[in-house]
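Please produce the structure of this protein holding adenosine-5'-diphosphate.
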Amino acid sequence: MIFKAKKILKSTFGYDDFRLLQEEVITSILSKNDSLVIMPTGGGKSLCYQIPALIFDGLTIVLSPLISLMKDQIAQLHQLGVEAAVLNSSLSPQEYYQNVELVESGKARLLYVAPETLLLDRTLALLKPLKIDCITIDEAHCISEWGHDFRPEYRKLVELREIFPEAVFVALTATATPRVQTDIEKSLMFKGAKKFVASFNRENLYLEITPKYDALNQTIKFLRKYPNQSGIIYCFSRKQVNTLAAELDNAGFSVRPYHAGLTDNERKTNQELFIKDDVQIIVATIAFGMGINKSNVRFVIHYDLPKNIESYYQEIGRSGRDGLRAHCLLLFSHSDTMKIKYFIDQKEAIERRIALNHLNALLNYAETGVCRREPLLTYFGEEYNKPNCGMCDNCNSEAKTLVDITIPTQKFLSCIKRANEGFGAAHIIDILRGSKAQKILDWSHQNLSTYGIGLEHTKKQWMFISHQLIRQNLIAPDPEHGALKITSKGYEVLTGSLAVNGTIKEDFEPKHEVITDSEFSSELFNALREKRKQIAGEMRLPPYVIFSDKTLTEMAALYPTSKKEMMGIYGMGEVKYERYGILFMDIVIRYCQKNKIKEIDSLPKEAFLKKAPKKSKVNETIAALFNTGNSVTDIMGETKLKKSTILGHLYTYSQNNKLKNVENILEDCNLSDEMIEKVTEVFTKLGCSTLSPVYAELREKVPYDELHLLRIYYLSKLEN
Ligand code: ADP
Ligand code: ZN
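Below is the modeled complex.
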């Protein structure tokens, strides 16, 4: 069973390894043991029940307290090609029946539902005849009055045990306190249930606390370090939120406020703009963040002292859900502390003692001279005794990240030299790693003195090293055919008169990957991000649902240019590859061509010239099929690509080239002539470089596929 789970992890979700505890939880659920799962935010709870849901014959019901969370989960599952349904009070009657249909027909593997909806007679009547294998209670702390978010309807969920006796119960939460945990087990009548508690250490969060002296300027300086990145700034009061948001806006930042004093509509708009990467920064009171799943929040600033450690932990926890580094800065001042002390002194005796305890724990954290993780995790009852976390101000990671890589650099350079500077990185690495590939033998490179001297690093590590060497201008790809040449600066390293600093990756481990700026191309990353934003806009989805930042970062570090390489990228499952893989690969290829990087290598020049266009231009192949009279449907049959992918390629092609007999493309259009004319008019009026305005102008009546198709037609006609 777990073998099957592992396969799904890779093929559907695009991940290589389970995170801590996931495998154990999945095994427990599959053997129908009730399970309580406690993992911090971003720990990977969803996968624990989603994979069993794909293995069970019957349906998995997921109870979730917030409509926005359900929507987000469903959107992510759909992007992975998983059928899932949702029932809640926000659906129109039509949407409601569509979802009921998905459940009744057995197509949906998962049903997301709000507790009060599930307990309705009509929902129970729908579900009773079906085989229900698993009931998952997400955000299970809502069941406990001790939790921070008690919801009375959660208390009734225990009734489901009798109604669905065959279902295994799974409760998940990120709340760590033992009291809440016991409450969950009791309320759900868990007997002999397995309990899984993950560490609350979020290794990818960089924790920093700094004295607050000129808060606004300190903040601006910080923000300048993260241009175009998403982040949240928490303030104590609404007034402070408004002032700061206005000041940052003045300073030219893309920023919106968020607090309970705004209208529902304003709050919703601001949140949405943030989620869609249209606005970079939200300045908020603590009210912001519940129910948003945005995975690429890169920083959290506490402009004022947080209420207590628990809320601090929750607030910083909203960053770095994608596992990439996120920076959490707290501006600490004694006058803030005095303010809070004053409020505490107004309270009754017992309450006052509790509040003081909270404050002291927080001060203890803020003023510690040891690793920040020590007081933080101790607070959650966890022991932490690593000497240096490398990710907090006290451990001061900066000095530690760069290491001396002179020796591997020398190996790499001398290998280039032995191979007469005629090959690209992949071939050089094959020599270093003693590969028996045919190409090596063809060139008798197994006889070089550098053959097999680089076994201490993996292929990926060597690839990282080679990219760093290019960026440090120690080697340069030949502008004509990409073979690596040693620069004069590189010769200084070879002769021992220059040392090199850089990083050597532990190889790609999915657990706590922290890719630093020097290891990926930010130009390529930005191009990939643009593409993601465009697609997300057209599909009306948050960008991170298409691909996480981590996925794009890996692409910008490893330059995948084949299906095989693309499938090795974090988060690239089969369905995502089919939908978007080629679109993003195109960008990588164009980048590599422009910068003459990548192993377009190891072949004599003539062969390279023959090979390169074929390797790089998928769109030309597809255009050739079209130009020789194949319809889009024909091409779909031939290439097994999706319609949207094919249209994407034809569009790319038609931007610089002419398609033959382009009117043939109308064969695959399902619109009336009248409608086609109307679309053309809108193109003329609004332009067609982005389609979402066109889609909106046509009142969302014309599907995107048709717009993509007509755009190709329109552009080609325009050319004539
Ligand atoms: P939680 O619900 O615990 O806050 P999620 O389930 O949303 O966390 O997971 C956080 C992120 O980690 C998601 O982007 C998810 O796809 C990713 N993730 C989960 N499991 C793995 C894994 N085994 N390998 C890599 N990434 C994973
Ligand atoms: Zn530390």
